[in-house]
Amino acid sequence: MHRRGVALIAVLVVAAVMTIVGSLLFMGTLGDLRQTRSTLQAAQARAAAEAGLTYARYAMEVARGDIKAILAPKMNLTANPATEWVLPESQWPGIASAIQSLLNTGYGSLPSGAVDQGQASVQFTITRFRGNTKGATAQTYRADYVVVSTGQVGPARRRTEEKGYFEIQLGRPALSQWLFLVDDAGGETGFFPTGTVFNGPVHANHNWGFWGRPVFRDVVSTSDDGAWYWSLGRDGCTGGRRVWVRGDSRPPCTVPDFQKGFLRGQPPIELPTSTLSQQRAALGLDPMDTSTPSNKDICSALGLKKGCPPVKNGVYLVNDGTNVTGGIYVQGNVDQLVLQATGTGQQIYTFKQGSDTWVITVDYTTNTTAVTKNGAPVGTYTGTPNGPASLGTGGPTGQIYVTGQIKSLQGPPRTGPLPCGVDYPGSSDNCPDHPPPAQIPPALSKETQLHITAVGAIGLTGDLVYECDPTKVTDPGYLATKPRCSLGAGQTLPTVLGVMSQNDNIYIEDSPIKAPDNLYLWGSYLSGASGKGLAVENYSGRGKQGKLRLFGGLIQSADQLRGIVDDSGRLQSGYIETYDYDLRFADSALAPPNFPTVRVFDVQKVQATPLSFREF
Fold first, then answer.
1. pTM for the full model?
2. What's the rounded Cα separation, in Å, for the pair 121 and 583?
């Protein structure tokens, strides 16, 4: 009995010891878990704080539109940008304060879901706004910044700080940065209907007109306080056929799809009515000088001595007898201009004027340009008429200048019928937007950067597309069939076309040469004279012709009617339009050579450069 009692006491002692040890182990493990959790939360808070710094740099760059709104009223629009600051020094302290307030108010907190764990907030300090560089076409300004980012996960908090500077570039952007730009959109007499699609920035100074559900995938703006919203009578709306609405829709008949908003009351954009800069560029003279070249200047640039002036009708490759020194200058009208890419690095221009035919072959592989007239050699010269003219001096440039009109402008003829019909909605959709059907040969070689300017009207009678489709140059399947279109790391496809009429319309011709059904037009097309634009000749009586696929941009004084639809939106005559933005045109990163720019400075770029980092 005594032994059994001793054994019981021993068991109890062992159990007590084990309980104590277990408790100690549990407490230790719990402490370790708490320590691990605390360490994890601290690491997550640090990661959130660093994410805040990344977001802050992003915010400084995407706030460009808001920064533009701060800077625009402070600009001296009469300043010579080469010698004077467009943003006067007296405004610099206030600009720094306004940008700081903008960033802290609009970008002080990261959007929901921006960090995986916890949350982050940022605080901006902007100082020393100052001028950096001046130039004839651009200026840059800098400001110092300090960003403190606070990340928090549970009770853990970490702060990071970044110091650096951000640079603001002001410039005169090319008009080609718009997919669609018009002074008068013609909304009192016509409209953009269901089926119209815009996927780039568009602006009308006045008179937007809409019906149904046109699609706008980028910002839409106007200088008016509203727009015309149409009803065709059987679409559910009451009231007049067109109603001025100071808003975004007129349900149920007209509800445009404004995917990035419809901005009203915006500043008007002036359009050019002079082509003196383009004329000088073609002559090899300084395009910055917009005075009228004298007859002596023209004769000298064209190498004409005896009997000049006047300049005789003809096609002139501007050269000094050995080298290309300008672009291509045409005195008089052009009956036909055909652009052709060989696919092997040559660009061919064929001009017909009366009974004469000039063929200019630009060979990028040998850096030479050859000219023939009526089959007989005229000369072969070193250099190529390609790309923009050098500002301040002039020189070789991809500028064709015609003192009269171009009656027919086209690429090579189609090799066969397209796999689509002319009904919309319906068979016209059977052709792809990109790449164009194989039956359409390219008009512009991969290397070509060209601007065609005519004082008079320009008639379009065929497709104008590039050798390489800018939307497909990263597609392995496309490149397997077009190896010349492959680009090196960091390269951008250079091909670009601009077409501009100074005094008249750019016409899609009906007679004597009728433009084909389902027309493909690539490039930026500009007709800025009062009341002029891209017009379809005899749009109401030429019969239905499917889609007009414009890839690039359209700038006009007055929007023209290009087709007729019935009450149900079905095409009856002319074309239904689709507008496809060439993303390379965004922010004027690429523009046709010597293309007109807006007359006032704009914020083209904001870029942050970090210099130091610390955690505390």
1. 0.81
2. 33
